[in-house]
Amino acid sequence: MIPLAFGPCQHRDRPRLWKDAPLSRAPFVCVIDDDQSLCAALVNLLRSYGYRTAAYGSADDFLAGADMARVDCVISDIQMPGMSGIDLRLLLTGTRPDIPVILMTARTEPVLLERAAATKPFRLLQKPFDAQDLAECLADAIGPGEAAIQGAD
User: Fold this and answer.
1) pLDDT (mean) for 4-28
2) Which of 65, 72, 98, 150 is an S-S bond match for 27, by CB 3.0 to 4.6 Å?
């Protein structure tokens, strides 16, 4: 049995949206997917919620271009050319274990899902997923008010 359940995150209330937070205090979320249209759609959605975002077409691009000190959360596809989202999760566990990583996939093979679960991502989302589910997962991953409070100090 796969130790991850697909479906909505269990958020205590409704997701904390950062529309009213100054951009300098809003959490910074990096989206990594080789599907440019999905990447653009996710970035636009997250910005509409008030998050700061950056998009990368591969894990290698993310590692080469992201300011890791600013990253609050990573949303990554599993299957990509070059480094997979699973391998990225493993690398981040060693270098920035505090960054929640949400993995997403359209694939359903049990072996792949078990391998992804073994990396202990914050959440594994099955594509296609609901925008509200993603918003709730981000609110849970980043923590209510945590990034805004840190930015205010």
Assistant:
1) 49
2) 72
